[in-house]
Each structure stands twice: as C-alpha cells, then as structure tokens.
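Reviewer 2 asked us to include a model.

Predict the structure of this chain.
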Amino acid sequence: MSKYVPPHLRGKSSADKAPGRSSNDKPDRGDNRWTERNQFKDSYNSFGSRNSRRTFQSEPLRNNSFWGKTTTESSRNGMKSAGFSLETSHSSLKNQEIKVGDENKEEGTEAKTFHVSEEQTKIAEYFRNNSVVFKSWEDVRAEGHNNNHIARFFEKKNANRGVQHKRAGAHVGADIGRIFQQFYNYAVDIDNGCAYSERAIDIATEKGSCWFLDFGFAPGGMSDLLLSSHPGIKGVGVSLDPAEGGNVYLESLKSSDRFTPLIGDVIEMARRDIDVAMEANLPKDFDGFDFAIIGITIHQEWEGENINELKDLLHFSQLYISLKYLKPGGMVLMRMHMSTKLIDCHFLSLMLSMFDIEKFSGVSCGRQRLHAKENSRQELSPAEDIEDEENSSSLDRLVKRLELKKKKGEADVRKVYSDRSPWWNLKSTAVATKPFSTFSMRKTYWILYHGFNCEEEKKKAVLERLKKVIAPGVFAYQYKEEESKFSLPIIMPLPLDELLETYGARMIKVLETVWGKQVIALKGFMAGKTDKRCRSGMYCRRRRQRGCNMAHDDDEMISEVLQALHAVNIRAGPRLKELLIS
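Predicted model (structure tokens):
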C-alpha cells in the first residue's frame, strides 16, 4: 500500500514538511496544525501557488499563526476584491501607509509604500463616527485577514489565476445558454433588491413608454428582463464586440423591434460625443432615455499601469452619455464598489445632488400600484385539506404534503422579500442593493436613483467636468504621493468637509444596507460556509479529499445566499424555460 501524504505536502521533500510530522507515515494526530485543520472538514482546501514572494508588511498577514507563512499575492488580490482591502482597513487608515516589499532582503528588492490619502482617512473617520454598521463592517473585514477559512478559500480560488481561460460568451459562436442564464439570474437578483423593472413599468404605464439605455448589456439579462416586463418598454444596448472582450447575446434581442444593439467602445463613444439617436437609428420622436444602466464589467485588455484608470474611465464615460440623454424624472442604476475612496464619495454625493424621488416620472402610478398590491396580499393558507381519502394511498398523501410544503416555502420567500424591499417603499431617492446569488463576498453593489432633477446650467457644468476627465491622456483621481494630492478630483467641486456635512448622512443611509449585507456574507464565509453549490453534490470526489470549497448540501451554504437563490429561481425559472435555456 502506498504511503499517505496529505494534499498540501505532496511533491515536497521531507525537509519542507511541517514539524511534528513524519515523512514516511500519516500525519501525527498530535500536530496542532493538523488537528486544527481537521476541525474545518468541508471547508478544507489544499495550498495554492506560493510562487509570489512579495508580501504586505502588515501584522495581520505577516503573523498568520495558522499558515506559518505569508499569504500569497494572488490571495491578497482576491481578498481585496472581497472587501479585505488593506488600503481601507481599520489599522492602515490609522497608520496612513501600507508597505509592500520582498521578504528576501539579499535580493535587494526595496519595499514600496502606498500612502492612504488624507481625504480617504477623513471619509472613513466620518463614517466610523456616525455609523455603527460601518464600524461593524470594518471590524469584520479586519477579522477576515486572520480567518483560516477566508485564507484557504482564496488560496484555492487563485491557484490558477495566471492561467488564461476563454470566457464562456466571449467569442462568436459561443453557447449563449449557460452565460445568459447566469446573467439573467444576476439581473433578477438585483431587481429583487431595488425593483428597477417595476419602476420601468411605472414609467411606461404613466407615460405610455419607457426608453432605457443599457451599458454592457450582453448577453442580455437586464435588457430581456425589462423588455419582457411591459410592451411599452424599449431600449438601446451598448457592448463591445465579442472579439474585443464583449459577450455574445440573445438572437431575440438582435431581431427585436423594441431593442437596438450598439456595438463599440463606450469610452471612444463618449470622447467622440456621439449622437446616440442617430447611431442607433432611433425614431424621429425619440426625446431621451427614461432609464440608464451603468454596469459595464471590465473584460478587455488595458495598456495603462493601473487598471483603476480603465475602471474610472468607464464610469465617467457611461455617466457622461447617460446624463446627456436622461429625461427629467428619469432613473439611473449604477454599479459601484464599497470603499472610502474620494472618487466613490464624489460619485455618490453627485448623484444624490441631482435626483429627487418626488420628481420621479412614475411616482404617482408606482405608489398607486404598490398600495393596491399591499391591499391584495394574501398569505397561503397553512391548513389545506390533506385528510385521508378513501381512494388515496399513503404515497399520494405524502406527495401532496411535500407539494404544499414547497408552495408554503415559496410564499414565505416572497413575503420576506416584499416586506423588506423597495417594492413596498417608494419613498427613497436612492436604493442600494447587494446581490447574494452571485459574488456575495465581493464589494460590488448597485444603486437605483429615482427622479432626475437637475437644472440645465448645473447639468451643463457636470457634463463639462466629465468631458475633462475622459480626455485622452488624463488619469483623473490618480493620487500623486509626492504632492499628496489627487489629479483632477473635479466631478463634485465641494471641499470635503462641506460635502460630508451636506451629503454625509444621506450617504450613510444608502450605504448601511450594503455594508450590512457584506458583513452577513463575510461572517458566513468565516464560519466555514460558502455561496456556491457543487454540481456533484454529495457524490463529489474532491470533497472526500478535502479539496472542494463549494457546498454539497444546504447546511454548508450561507443561509441568506440560499434564500436569495430560492427567490431568484422562483422569478427567473419561467422565463428561462420559455427561452429553452433552463
């Protein structure tokens, strides 16, 4: 019989193996690290790549007692996207600097220091002093740096980060089914949190039509959801060509008489100041969009030194075209990231300054419909007649009980979501939501702004500022360490103290929803649970080897994620079946 070697020690010499463990035998059960690792049975993963030697010189990562070694750079990148960004962690904001260097001083690699700006420190301090939820968010993220489950999750997730994979929908002729199902479910999950399709229906019902502009529309999840909601909803979708990093999209969108795809680079479109109506060949009576979706995800390559330059350029460009064509009373749905950076603070305060729920085009119709829904809500009766019938078998009665239980569960999910959703509270100018069915750990969230209300002079000034920051060769909001200032931080021209005094309370009110939701997600992961199901379920072979970090039954799932998935399946299932994609 071959000798047993634990997965994380395979391929290593005996000198590399952990102390207290023989190279010829099974691991010593007295070894504290092995005992501790055994406690996390279904969350255990083998070590990932350890090729990177650069490490953050911060105490939480350097002194990780469980690993005995520093966390890899690939794991740090993943942890950063999940909200464990050291630039905004509790300790780093106090120290106002982060050092990155090589542990091996003999190689002569000098440590590099990244400074946290004074503005970022001030924003975080304001949030900390005025929001218990933000402080909890900070504390949980700081705790996550030393959490064994989080570290193992990203070690496994990023082991193949350097390997190039072709994205499922990023080439002509790609199978649209799987990628559309993923994006459609994501669109429904966002809609469950902020009800953008309901608000579009309100506009179409009140005005006769609702035109939307969907940036990054392919493969068509949000666009299809909107178009299938009401016959008066029409749209234009902007996306890169699949050959340049975009996705393929539904044939039904290509042939629809209510939807026009506009293929191209949105940054170049904004710089050229295109006429959208002319480019998309829209009807002569077109007078603007009622709804804009700013949601492009980066897929194309970038030649610049900092990927944030591309991310910010995409936001500026989408916002420029959206505001240029947005009708008074219209809406904007915007994809954002949780942070205390100056640019995110400027985006949020700028949008809050230009929208007012009472000016929303569909507010009257929407409130009437919500009131009617509230009055007509009926809960499923808990006691339906399943008494023994003369001609029914015990199996028939069992099947009936299971069907009733399923219906009751679906009704409970609907009730939970309707009770806490803006579907029943059309009072807030900005409604934020964080999807849980996908990317639950990440800092991504969405905000729906209702009621565009901006005087012509102010709108013109905002567009002029956005035009400056999208100009070629300009990297707006780049922090210049030698000068301790940002380049062109102009989209919200207010001193930071005045900005926080004017919009700080409203910003916190919006953000507390998503801070709280990410705390739930992170605590779930830190407890050893996950947000994805393994397709093999209980029959997963890798699970037996402690090498699969997905859930194999409901108990291993984060409960709130499971509830979100259930709610998405209830709404998305019928449409996906209709499109023969389920």
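The longest strand covers residues 326-337. The two ends are 46 Å apart (CA to CA). We have added this to the supplementary material.
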